[in-house]
Prior knowledge:
Blueprint: H1 34-42, H2 53-70, H3 74-94, H4 108-128
Helix pairs in contact: 2-3, 3-4
Amino acid sequence: MSEQYGPPESYDAPPAGVPSAGQPVPGPRTPPSPRRAQRAQARPAVPRWLGQLPYVFVLCGVAAGLAVVATDHFRRGSMLIAAAVFIGALARLVLPESQTGMLAVRRRWVDVLLMTAAAVGVTLVAFVAKGQ
């Protein structure tokens, strides 16, 4: 006895692109899909470019600190770099996820811990290093 595999012959599949009887036909009364509702809730309340400002401020602070270091003021430049990184840590701690831009790399507490440790480390190096 051989059994047939596949749908029984009495099964009539709807043509491609036509919804089956159990699915609602999209129209004005159809509720929005849950995915669309989640996307609408996830949209930030501020423009996208505004969320990058904390990152830009930290980047400018580090660049200014490097410029000061290049002019033979090691301690002042290092302190400026440490201050910029610490401000980045504070921004990551205080601001919501949608407004931190590229400062948000990992979980919030990991980002804050690493940036604070980097700022403290740069500060210690600035005070421990001997100047000319």
